[in-house]
C-alpha cells in the first residue's frame, strides 16, 4: 500500500446533506407557532407543491418513507397475483411486493444500465401477472417506452421504484411521469432528503383520496373507515427539512456532476474498470458512482484494499434479492444480474466530497490495480 494516499478520516459512500442550521431552525419555528406537528400540516402541503413543481408532475402524495409509499402504491392499485421485478435492487422493492401478499417474479437485467431487461419481461408474463415493478437503478432510466408497450399489450400496471432517480428527466420530462405510479425515497442517504420520507407521483387524480386514506389507517372521514390502511404519514419536521434542502437541490446535483466528471476523467484510463456512461437525452442526478471490476475476486480484493486507505466502498447491490435467505429463489436464474452483482463496487459520491478526494481515490485504485496479481 502507498501510505501517502491514505485518508485521515473515513470516506463513506454517502454523506447526509444537512441544510444550514439557522435555516432549519427558522423553518421549524412555524411548527411552534401553529402547534401542528403532523397530519397534513402547512409545511407538508407547501413541500408537496414544491416537489410537484421541481419534479414536473401533476399529482403527488407524501409519505413517512419510501418503502411504505411503495407498499401503499401496490395496495392503492388493488393488485393481486404476480409482479415482475428485478433482483438487482434494494431489499425494499421485493419486500413491498411480498408484504402486500403478491409474488415477486425475477427478470434479468441489462448489462449496460443494470435495469430490468425489458426484452426479457415477456417470457415471465402468465395469466397471474398483474404488474411490472421496475427500478431506475442508480438513477438511470429504465426502457420506459418498451415497458409501457408491454403494459398496454398485456393490460398490466407499471410501478417505478424511482428511489434513486430524484430530479432525473428524459428529454425534459420528469421521470415521475412514467408508468401508473412512481416512488421516490427521500431518505437521508439519497440525493435529496427530508430525513426519512417518501413520495408517490402519478397522473390519475382519483388516486389521491385513496392514498391519503391508506396512509392514515384507511380513515375516509370522521366516522368512516373504508380501507385496511396503515400509518405512513409525513410529519412537519420532515417537511421542514425537505423545504430547506430543496432550496439547494440544483447546486447539489451540479456538484455531483463535477464529481462524476472527475471520476470519469481518471477511471476511463483504467482498463480493468467500467462505469455507467451519461446518456444524451437524460438529465442525470449523479446519485451513485458504481464501477464494475473485471471479476468477483478482483472486486472483493479491491473492496478490502480500499478499507486500508480508509475508503469504505459498498458492494451495491450484493447479495441479489433472489439470494436472500428469506426467499426461495436462486440468482442462477438471472445470470447477468449475478455477474454484475459479483463485480460491482460503489465509490464515495456526495455533495460535500471534494474533487481532490476523488482524485486521491482514483490514484489509490490505479496504484492498487497496477499491483494486482
Ligand atoms: C432507499 C430505497 C428504497 C426505500 O426507501 P426508504 O425511503 O429508505 O424507505 C426503495 N428502493 C430502493 C431502490 C432504494 O434505494
A few lines on this structure:
The protein has 373 residues and is an alpha/beta fold. The chain is built from twelve helices and 17 strands. Strands 2-10-9-6-5-3-4 form a seven-stranded mixed beta sheet, sandwiched between helices.
Q: How would you describe the overall organization of this protein?
A:
There is one protein chain. By secondary structure, the protein is α/β, with parallel strands linked by helices. The protein folds into 2 domains: 137 residues, Aspartate Aminotransferase, domain 1 (Alpha-Beta Complex), CATH 3.90.1150.10; 227 residues, 3-Layer(aba) Sandwich (Aspartate Aminotransferase, domain 2), CATH 3.40.640.10. It is 37% helix and 16% strand. It is built from 12 helices and 17 strands. Strands 2-10-9-6-5-3-4 form a 7-stranded mixed β-sheet, with helices on both faces. The chain has a 3-stranded antiparallel β-sheet with strand order 8-7-14, with no helix packed on it. The chain has a 3-stranded antiparallel β-sheet with strand order 13-15-17. Helix 3 runs parallel beside helix 4 and helix 3 crosses helix 7. The longest helix is centred in the C-terminal third of the chain and has 19 residues. The protein starts with 10 loop residues before the first strand and ends with a helix. The mean pLDDT is 97. Bound molecules: pyridoxal-5'-phosphate (PLP). Pyridoxal-5'-phosphate (PLP) binds next to helix 3 and helix 4.
Amino acid at each position: 500500500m502507498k501510505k501517502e494516499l491514505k485518508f485521515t478520516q473515513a470516506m463513506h459512500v454517502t454523506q447526509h446533506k444537512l441544510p444550514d442550521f439557522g435555516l432549519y431552525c427558522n423553518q421549524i419555528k412555524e411548527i411552534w407557532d401553529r402547534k401542528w406537528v403532523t397530519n397534513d400540516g402547512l409545511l407538508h402541503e407547501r413541500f408537496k407543491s414544491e416537489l410537484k413543481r421541481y419534479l414536473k408532475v401533476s399529482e403527488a402524495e407524501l409519505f413517512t418513507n419510501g418503502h411504505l409509499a411503495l407498499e401503499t402504491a401496490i395496495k392503492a392499485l388493488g393488485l393481486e397475483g404476480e409482479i415482475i421485478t428485478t433482483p438487482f435492487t434494494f431489499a425494499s422493492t421485493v419486500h413491498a411486493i411480498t408484504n402486500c401478499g403478491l409474488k415477486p417474479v425475477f427478470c434479468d437485467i441489462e448489462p449496460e444500465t443494470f435495469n430490468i431487461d425489458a426484452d426479457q419481461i415477456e417470457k415471465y408474463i402468465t395469466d397471474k401477472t398483474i404488474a411490472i415493478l421496475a427500478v431506475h437503478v442508480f438513477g438511470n432510466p429504465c426502457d420506459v417506452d418498451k415497458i409501457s408497450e408491454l403494459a398496454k399489450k398485456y393490460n398490466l400496471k407499471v410501478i417505478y421504484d424511482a428511489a434513486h432517480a430524484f430530479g432525473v428527466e428524459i428529454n425534459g420530462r420528469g421521470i415521475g411521469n412514467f408508468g401508473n405510479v412512481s416512488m421516490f425515497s427521500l431518505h437521508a442517504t439519497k440525493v435529496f432528503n427530508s430525513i426519512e420520507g417518501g413520495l408517490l407521483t402519478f397522473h390519475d387524480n382519483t388516486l389521491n383520496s385513496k392514498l391519503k386514506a391508506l396512509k392514515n389507517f384507511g380513515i375516509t372521514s370522521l366516522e368512516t373507515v373504508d380501507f385496511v390502511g396503515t400509518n405512513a404519514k409525513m410529519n412537519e419536521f420532515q417537511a421542514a427539512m425537505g423545504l430547506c434542502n430543496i432550496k439547494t437541490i440544483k447546486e447539489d446535483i451540479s456538484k455531483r456532476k463535477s464529481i462524476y466528471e472527475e471520476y470519469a476523467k481518471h477511471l476511463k484510463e483504467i482498463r480493468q474498470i467500467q462505469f455507467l456512461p451519461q446518456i444524451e437525452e437524460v438529465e442525470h442526478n449523479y446519485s451513485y458512482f458504481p464501477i464494475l471490476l473485471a471479476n468477483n475476486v478482483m472486486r472483493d480484493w479491491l473492496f478490502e484494499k480500499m478499507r486500508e486507505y480508509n475508503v469504505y466502498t459498498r458492494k451495491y447491490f450484493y447479495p441479489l434479492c433472489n439470494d436472500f435467505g428469506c426467499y426461495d429463489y436462486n440468482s442462477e436464474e438471472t445470470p447477468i444480474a449475478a455477474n454484475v452483482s459479483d463485480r460491482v463496487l460503489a465509490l464515495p459520491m456526495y455533495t460535500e466530497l471534494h474533487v481532490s478526494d476523488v482524485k486521491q481515490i482514483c490514484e489509490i485504485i490505479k496504484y492498487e490495480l497496477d499491483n494486482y496479481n
